[in-house]
Amino acid sequence: MTFGKNTAFMAAFASAAWLMACSNMFDVDADRPLRAEQTSTSPGHPGGGDDAGANLDSGSGASDACPAGGCYVNPCNPGSHPVGGSCVAVVSISAGTRHACRIKNDGSISCWGNNGQGQITSPAGTFQQVSAGYEHTCAMRDNASVACWGGNATGETAVVDGTYQEIAAGFQCTYALHLDESVVSWGTGGGCEYPSPSDSYRQISTSVGNFGACGVRQNGTMGCWGDNGSGEGAPPSGVFRQVSAGSAFTCGVRQDGSLACWGYSGDGITTTPAGTFQQVSSGDRHACAVAQDGHVACWGSNGKNAATPPSGAFLQVSAGTNFTCGIRQDGTATCWGDDTDGQAPPSPP
């Protein structure tokens, strides 16, 4: 079943956000690659970072100009989107350097932590994915356009008009995955000075501490571009579901659900836990992943207890700089680790 005129967007959306079913009429395709670093992007040294435009019609009554490439019309209620013929609620959270953001149940954005550059002062509207970077934040609205706010030292919030399926905010740099599966970037820091790849991708990730990015191609193989000083840009062979770039290291979920990390090997960061996982997020010097049963496993540096997750079942996790945030299976958000700037409250707004 198709919805609206951007059918390619809907085919890609199931792999663009973590989803929680709110209808049993149809089954969501569990074999589609799921991503968090909408999910973007993941934080790294010296900060964190993970993994929107006008809304034509998301059931909220909002009406604005269409972005370049046309408008996507969401037939579901705000905060929900069609996947596999069913309306499902979007779950998206992203931990940056000293701030974090999430998509709330009504599709609005809530941010907390450091606001030195206005990075937690989010715009109004309904969104489907958010990505917290170094000192800026970007998000994708229901109509697949992008909005960015906060620091703009190198043009990282100067959005290139278009319709997108994923956004990834890094260090003074933003990457976006276009509906045509090409990679677009704006800003001149954090790896955006490197040419974007010409391959077709289904998921991308960058970091505020890694001057480059990685992505999962349409055939499931991994591609990286930018810096490779510690081997973070030299992925292993094989088929992957999802990738998350950290600070001088990168992690991914293989097709069989096992984890792989490469690059900087200090703090035991490339020694991954055994098991079957749904999603992984790479931070500054630690990483966390959601296992098949919903529990969170973290490894690497445990500074500020960033790698000591709470018990319980989760839908998504996002590793920042010395802190981590996640969304539980009941839809509530929680964070742990360094809370110096209020970025890791146990019950975020």
Describe what this molecule looks like in 3D.
There is one protein chain. This protein is mainly β. It has one domain: Methylamine Dehydrogenase, Chain H (7 Propeller). It has one helix and 24 strands. Strands 1-3-2 form a three-stranded antiparallel β-sheet, covered by helices on one side. A three-stranded antiparallel β-sheet has the order 4-5-6, with no helix packed on it. The chain has a three-stranded antiparallel β-sheet with strand order 7-8-9, with no helix packed on it. A hairpin with a 4-residue loop joins strand 11 and strand 12. It is globular and about 40 Å long. The N terminus is likely disordered.
Number of separate strands: 24
Instruction: Tell me the CATH topology.
Output: Methylamine Dehydrogenase, Chain H
Mean of the pLDDT scores? 80
Distance between the termini: 36 Å
Helix count from the secondary structure assignment: 1
Compact summary:
The protein is an all-beta fold and 349 residues long. Helices cover 2% and strands 37% of the residues.
Feature tags:
mainly beta, Methylamine Dehydrogenase, Chain H, 2% helix, globular
How is the secondary structure organized here?
Blueprint: H1 7-13, E1 18-21, E2 80-83, E3 86-91, E4 93-95, E5 99-103, E6 109-113, E7 127-132, E8 136-141, E9 146-150, E10 164-169, E11 174-178, E12 183-186, E13 201-207, E14 210-217, E15 222-226, E16 240-245, E17 249-254, E18 259-263, E19 277-282, E20 286-291, E21 296-300, E22 314-319, E23 323-328, E24 333-337
Antiparallel strand pairs: 1-3, 2-3, 4-5, 5-6, 7-8, 8-9, 10-11, 11-12, 13-14, 14-15, 16-17, 17-18, 19-20, 20-21, 22-23, 23-24
